[in-house]
Hints:
Blueprint: E1 5-8, H1 10-23, E2 28-32, H2 34-38, H3 42-48, E3 54-57, H4 60-68, E4 75-77, H5 84-92, E5 96-99, H6 102-110, E6 119-124, E7 132-133, H7 134-146, E8 155-157, H8 170-182, E9 189-192, H9 194-199, E10 207-208, E11 234-246, E12 251-252, E13 258-259, E14 264-269, E15 286-289, E16 292-297, E17 305-308, E18 320-324, H10 330-336, H11 341-347, E19 353-356
Parallel strand pairs: 1-19, 2-3, 2-10, 3-4, 4-5, 5-6, 6-7, 6-8, 8-9, 9-10
Antiparallel strand pairs: 1-11, 11-14, 11-18, 12-13, 14-17, 15-16, 15-18, 16-17
Helix pairs in contact: 7-8, 10-11
This protein binds pyridoxal-5'-phosphate.
Residues 32, 34, 78, 159, 193-194, 209-213, 219 line the site of pyridoxal-5'-phosphate (PLP).
Amino acid sequence: MVTPVAEINLGALQHNFAVVRSCAPHSKVLAMLKANAYGHGLVRVARALPDADAFAVARLDEALILRNAGITQPIVVMMGFAKANELQLLAEYDLQSIVHSDYQIDYLENTPLVRPITVWLKIETGLGRLGFLMTDAKSAYERLMACPQVAKPVCIMSHFASAELLDNPKTVQQLARFQETTQAFEGPKSIAKSAAIMAIPQTHLDWVRPGVMLYGGSPFPGEIGLSRGLQVVMTVKSELISVKKLSTGETVGYGETWRCEANMPVGVVSFGYADGYPRHITPGAPVLIHGVRCPIIGRISMDMLTVDLRPCPHAKVGDVVTLWGEGLPVEEIARCANTIPYTLMVGLTRRVRVVEK
Ligand SMILES: *Cc1c(COP(=O)(O)O)cnc(C)c1O
C-alpha cells in the first residue's frame, strides 16, 4: 500500500515567520492557524512558533485542542461564540473572542463567567461579511467598555476584501474607513492579512494577522511565495504504483478523455481526488518525477491519477511523485485548477499522512 504524505518543513515555517517580523517590525503577530493550520497540523504549527504573540483559529473546538495540548499563548477564536455555554468555555480556557454582532454582546452582559474575557470588536469596512456596520461601531464599543465581563482594553479589527489586488482602491478605502471609525477607540488595532503585510506597510497597525505567507504561499495572483523570499513548507508526495506502455489509439481514464497519439509510457500515481487533488484541474497540469515535469493525462480518479511518462522515460514503480511543494509551486497547481493555494493546502484529506520533514 502506498500512503501519500504531506511533508512539513518546520524550518521553512520559522523562516516565513521571520519574514513576517521583518515586514512588520513594529507590530505584534497573530498567527492564523485556522483549518488545522491551513492543513499543516494545528498543534505542530503552534509548537513550532513559540515567538508568535498570539494564535488565531476559526472555531472554539480548534482553540480547545490547542489549550489541551499545552499551548499557553493568547488564542483568538475568529468566529466567536454563538451560545452562552460557548462563551463560558471561552472564559474557562482563557480564550479571546471576536465579537461581530449584537447578540454576542447580549450574552456577554448576561452570562456569568469565571473571569472577564478579552474581545476583539470586528468592524465591517467593506468585505460585506462579519462585523458591526460602521454606524453601529461606537455603540457596540461603548457597550463592551461598560461590560464588566469584558477585559480592557477592547481590541479592534477589520478584514480586507481585495488586499491581494494591488491596484484596487478598495484596500486603502477600507483602511481609511477603519481608522476614521475607530480613532476614538483606545484598544490595539488590526487589519492586515498576508497580502497587506507584504505590500502595504501603513496597514500594519498594532497587530498583523499572517496566514498563507507563514505556509510559504503567495496571496498575489500570478506570483509564487519564493519570489517574495518565502520558503515552501508543505510538499505533497506519493509514488508510481504502475508503469506500462500503451499503444497508439488506446485511451486513458474514465470518459476516455485522453487518447494516445503514439506508443507511450503511462504511469499511475497513488493520489486522487479522495486525497485532495482537484478533480477539475486542467489536463496537462504537471507532477514532478526525478525533478522532471510530467503532464497529467485523463481524468483524476478517486484514488489515482495518470501521467504521461515520456518526459521521464526511465521512471519506474516506487519512484516518488511530487504533487505540489518543493520544486513544483502550489500556486502553479492552484492556477491550473482555477483555484487559490489555500484550497489545495486545506483540502488534503485525512488519509494523507502529515509528517515533519
Ligand atoms: C484567514 C484570515 C487571515 C489570514 O489571511 P491570509 O490571506 O491567509 O494571510 C487574516 N484575518 C482573518 C480575519 C482571517 O480570517
